[in-house]
Amino acid sequence: MDINLFKFCSSLKALGYLMILMVAAIIVVSYYAVVVVTWGPKLLVGGLDSVLSFAIVVVFHILLILLTWCYFMVVFRDPGSVPENWRPVSEEYNLEEGPMTSSDCVVPETLNSTWSSSDGQERRPAVGYCIQCQNGKPPRCHHCSVCQRCVLKMDHHCVWVVNCVGACNYKFFLLFLLYTFLETTLDTLALLPSFINFFGEAKNHSASPGNLSIIFLAFVINLAFALSLLCFIVMHVSLLSSNTTSIEVYEKRRAVRWKYDLGRKTNFEQVVFGKKKALWLFPLYSEDDFSSIPALHGLDFPTRSDVEA
Questions:
Q1: Is 130 a catalytic residue?
Q2: Do 295 and 301 meet the contact criterion of CB atoms below 8 Å apart?
Q3: Three-class HEC string of the chain
Q4: Annotated catalytic residue: which of 144, 150, 158, 168?
Q5: Residues sharing a CB contact under 8 Å with residue 207, sequence separation 6 or more, in sequence order
Q6: Run means of pLDDT, 10 residues per run, the chain, 309 residues
Q7: Cβ(285)–Cβ(175) under 8 Å?
Q8: Most C-beta atoms within 10 A of its C-beta, which of 125, 253, 287, 306?
């Protein structure tokens, strides 16, 4: 009897649902500490304090709306699924040979062929086969042991969003990281004066113990997340600039030239964010970008012309 041990990895989804509750709890604690306890009451004081309080509260809510929007888009957006009985375009002339079988399970580079597209860039179809899904594998596609399916241009499975990060939701994931970093940084700076006064107020019993505890907890959590997210953002900016996924890092190191690196501007626009600048900071794509840029669908990727097939 065949036993697929990787199916046990799907139990990690339960951990992801707990992470969603944790995200909600952190948002609630931060909101209470920043808006309700610290800066909200100063709106009615008047003078410079009211102006500063208004600015902090407004920016806090804008960032909260954006990060929540991006978060739900990452959670509920399909990262990219392989069409049933998928075959590369270059094999259309060979359909009479019949569907691929498990014997066709090969490393993509061994069945590569190259043809020129209308934009002058080379296209490299990579033929692979996933035994678990019983389906073809497009280039840069990987099987997720947690989701139990192949994901187009898979970057990683994120337990915080109970979903894979792939071709169709990578932009939303990056924006979620950015807005969460900005929000946690704002919370840290907004709570810093209260945190400095924490020990004196606790000693003199001049404030509610419950409020002091929430301010202390919110400050520590937001500081920790801001620092960790900064490292994570730097890593993904580096990957984005070279058009590399987390899974492809080792493969890229072995290559003299990374075949998918088309330059920072092209990598940014044609692979992740699209050409519509007005939508770069929102978890949206324009219809023109989504219809004219194949890489956004995760099935066809242009490659460098100076890299051998």
A1: no
A2: yes
A3: CCCCHHHHHHHHHHHHHHHHHHHHHHHHHHHHHHHHHHHHHHHHCCCHHHHHHHHHHHHHHHHHHHHHHHHHHHHHCCCCECCCCCCCHHHHHHHHHCCCCHHHCCCHHHHCCCEECCCCCEECCCCEEECCCCEEECCCCEEECCCCEEECCCCEEECCCCEEECCCCHHHHHHHHHHHHHHHHHHHHHHHHHHHCHHHHHHHCCCCHHHHHHHHHHHHHHHHHHHHHHHHHHHHHHHHHCCCCCCCHHHHHHCCCCCCCCCHHHHHHHHHHCCCHHHCCCCCCCHHHHHHCHHHHCCCCEECCCCCC
A4: 158
A5: 201
A6: 50 73 94 95 88 96 97 94 79 40 36 42 60 90 90 93 94 97 97 83 65 92 96 95 93 87 90 91 92 88 77
A7: no
A8: 125
What is this structure's pTM?
0.83
